Amino acid sequence: MHKEMILRNCILSVRIVCLFLLYSQHCYADIYTTAVQLSRVSIATPTTIVKTDGKRIRVDISRIPVGTVDTLSALCPVSPTPGLSRNAALRIRHVIPKNGLLIGSEPVEIISSSSHQPSSYGFTTDYFTSFSWGAEDCFSVGTFTYPQSSVFWPPTVVEAQLPESITPGHYQGKLQFRAGLGISLFTSPLTGQQADLPSFTQILASAGEVTIPFPVEVKNSCKFSNSGITLDHGTITYDEAIDNIASATTSLICDYSAGVAKVEIKSAGVTGVKTADGIDIPLSNGWISTLSVEGPSGQHGSSIEIDTSSTPNPMLRFKSTLRSTKDSVLGPFAGSAVAVVTML
């Protein structure tokens, strides 16, 4: 008797995802400014986390530890009045220029800054505090500590898009901004004698440039042209099912045509077994699918490596080969796996 098994809706789903490199590093900076009223800023070691995702970079600067102090040595902007003490309202302004992020010597336009507001110049943030001193002591203001001892208030996350001219490699990154001090003086009690708060232009002109360095590695990032592919074996007989092959193609699209990409198939939710032909994925109803990926040069298996500098945007073929076991039974079946691409 001829044995026949009808298999319906035999679909093997392959979900494709990409892994991206996260790169972390610590940095420090001593900041000197040339502002008339702000002579020096000392910054303790901040933690800087740099993440590159293809052509996008994210610089996360955490809160500065306790100990950040400004030394103010400004002349009193108004004439001292004998016997009258003074209070000063301070405005500290930080400005990050639009191109204040450097990767090597290449300026990178900043898209956003979490703690700064967009302006025509770039991104700015202000906060206020106050101090007081004696009537005759207008030449030595003293020291002032930032709120929460943090130059970045709140912690700053800067995002930017890397230009085409920046290729994969190791770079010295720099985040540049300006720290300016606006000061508004008034008497206590108020007698009508009051200085105007310097304009934004004045603050910016007198502010010193601050640079926070950090190392960064720009790596090639690749993705598949399809978010997922389906390997459909269709409706087949038992005889046709043995060693039946279903395949589909997708392209590997990389940000840069440089570097070696590794494409690997991994099991999802089940235990796969790697073989010389690929990786065996158990399916429902006792069947096995041997999944493999084939590259443009004929290389194949559960994982392959491709030199994207010699083969940009290579075409890949994913293949499913059905295998029976002693537990194979009639009926539909399905399974899934994940294809992962990493840059070596």
UniProtKB/TrEMBL annotation:
Signal sequence, renumbered to the chain: none
Fimbrial adhesin MrpH C-terminal domain segment(s): 222-343
GO CC terms in record: pilus
Protein name as it appears in the record: Fimbrial adhesin MrpH C-terminal domain-containing protein
Single GO BP term: cell adhesion
Pfam families associated with the record: MrpH_C
Alphabetized InterPro entries for the sequence: Adhesion_dom_fimbrial_sf, MrpH_C
Domain of life: Bacteria
